[in-house]
Design brief:
The structure holds two protein chains of two kinds. Chain A is mostly helical. Helix content of chain A is 78%, strand content 0%. In chain A, α1 runs parallel beside α3, α4 runs parallel beside α6 and α5 runs antiparallel to α6. In chain B, the strands form two sheets. Chain B has a six-stranded mixed sheet, with helices on both faces. Chain B has a four-stranded antiparallel sheet with strand order 2-1-4-5. The two termini of chain B are 35 Å apart. In chain B, α4 packs across α5 and α7 packs parallel to α8. The chains are: A mainly alpha, B alpha/beta.
Chain lengths: 231, 273
């Protein structure tokens, strides 16, 4: 499903490559933001958390750049068929990756508020969950640049595991809150963090559906939904 | 043309893909055209709808213009051209010996790439067809036909005060609309357009495209164009030709957003080698 032969107008290929590169770059920043916000959380690194918040501006700027490139590409190259679908997907994906960055930023903002959370056990599950969603983001954006529909389907299948993580964390945090009211504040923060990660997984899944459509021109078959109560 | 048996006709009926529902005006089955030993059109079968604008696209030399010209037997005028297959207009074989070719070309009109008005007055350009076909009784009747045709072609307001001026004195875009008025004047059922706007500037092109849009429904329209955006803008059905064959035929929106054939995709996305 990789891009076939090049366009007769080489500059068109260059424009598309540049667009793909920008999306990849945004993906790299978002992955890094997820990893860094989690590291800052685990290591109580307030400076690191602040850096994540600051770096989010790069994503906003890149999103604007992608939008400008897409508008220009449509105006100057009049893309059609799979090219058109890819360009429209790029526009939508850029705004989703920007949202993913916002979720990571939101996690980072909670770091200074979470001083007394050491004894909250589900904390240990969060880095693993973060690693999983970060990998989904990575894989789905690779699938986009490669126009790989099969890889996109695989990303969707991973979302089930993310939902399971979230359900498990949700139940455990509820138990902690019930045990001792002092646990409520840190538990609530951790619950929001888990929810943010779960949302990132959902967004990666949405991107996967867009990649699938861009690559094949067909909608991905409806995937079975997890039956968790927590969402 | 050689007759094609009914069985294969029925087999081909399934070729008209689902989509924009439309009554069939013309059908072509297994149409091939060769110029000497060169096969220009190779076994093309297609249904042309009554209400839709049908666009033929494809690279130069793909046979789209040659095929278009078989639809009103314009290729008959080329001695080396030899055609086989069957073409029907409202179920009637247009290559049958009983078909009156002059009458056929009145029913299936044609507009060419280069505007070609007669070196006569604007009025005479439009009045000529109705007069020789006996479609108007007397001067007043003919005046009505000329005015109506020029109005439908969107040219009336620009020329009504100078109908006696020469048609060749008009601008390129106006000349092309005059040619469309001339085609309309004999009250055709189908209008074939071979690159009708390729010699015109963008504004004149837009006027022709708007005109095609307005004529849709009144006449079945088939347009050959090299300009893919134009095909996308004016047509509801698009046929892609390559090396004399019909590669893909479908709703215009499908052809341009999600073509099924690899060759169609490569062509419309500009990857054609």
């Amino acid at each position: 499903m990789a891009a076939t032969t090049g366009h007769t107008v080489k500059a068109f290929d260059d424009d598309l490559d540049q667009l793909r590169a920008m999306i990849s770059q945004m993906g790299g920043i978002a992955e890094n933001a997820i990893a860094e916000s989690m590291r800052a959380l685990m290591q109580r690194d307030h400076d690191g958390a602040e850096r994540v918040v600051r770096d989010d501006k790069k994503l906003d700027a890149l999103e604007a750049e992608v939008e400008a490139s897409v508008v220009q590409l449509i105006a100057l190259r009049a893309p059609l068929a799979d090219d058109l679908r890819e360009v429209v997907a790029a526009l939508k994906i850029a705004s989703i990756v920007e949202r993913i960055g916002d979720y990571a930023k939101n996690i980072a903002k909670r770091v200074p508020l979470l001083e007394d959370m050491a004894r909250i056990e589900p904390l240990s599950l969060l880095p693993e969950m973060a690693r999983l969603v970060s990998e989904m983001v990575h894989k789905v954006l690779n699938a986009f640049t490669e126009r790989d529909a099969a890889a996109a389907v695989q990303v969707c299948e991973r979302d089930r595991a993310v939902d399971d993580f979230y359900d498990s964390i949700f139940r455990t945090l509820l138990t902690f809150m019930m045990e001792d009211p002092h646990n409520i504040t840190p538990s609530a923060h951790l619950l929001f963090i888990a929810k943010n990660l779960e949302r990132i997984g959902d967004h990666a899944t949405n991107v996967a559906e867009m990649v699938y459509f861009a690559a094949t021109g067909e909608r991905m078959a409806e995937r079975p939904r997890g039956g968790g109560l927590a969402r | 043309m050689s007759p094609v048996n009914d069985q294969s006709l029925n087999e081909m009926a399934g070729h008209h893909q689902a989509g924009t529902a439309d009554a069939v005006k013309m059908i072509a089955r297994h149409v091939s055209v060769s110029y000497g030993d060169k096969l220009a059109v190779d076994g093309v079968s297609i249904d042309i709808g009554t209400e839709n604008v049908t666009a033929f696209i494809g690279p130069s030399g793909c046979g789209k213009s040659t095929f278009l010209r078989t639809l009103n037997r314009m290729n008959d005028t080329i001695p080396a051209a030899r055609s086989t297959g069957r073409i029907e207009l409202d179920g009637e074989d247009i290559y049958s010996p009983s078909m009156d070719v002059v009458q056929l070309r009145a029913r299936v009109g044609m507009v060419f790439q280069k505007p070609n008005p007669f070196p006569k007055s604007i009025y005479e350009n439009v009045a000529y067809g109705p007069r020789i076909h006996g479609l108007a009784r007397g001067k007043a009747d003919l005046d009505t036909v000329v005015e109506r045709s020029l109005k439908r072609a969107g040219l009336w307001e620009e020329v009504k005060d100078r109908l006696t001026d020469s048609g060749t004195a008009l601008s390129g875009g106006q000349q092309q609309r005059l040619c469309i008025a001339r085609a309309i004047a004999v009250d055709p059922e189908v209008i074939l357009m071979d690159e009708p706007a390729s010699a015109l500037d963008p504004i004149a092109t837009a006027k022709i495209e708007e005109l095609i849009h307005e004529l849709r429904g009144r006449y079945a329209i088939v347009i050959v164009t090299h300009n893919m955006q134009q095909a996308a803008r004016v047509s509801q059905r698009t046929a892609f030709f390559h090396l004399g064959k019909l590669v893909e035929y479908g709703d215009t929106s499908q052809i341009f957003t999600n073509p099924k054939a690899e060759r169609t995709k490569d062509y419309i996305t500009g990857r054609y080698g």
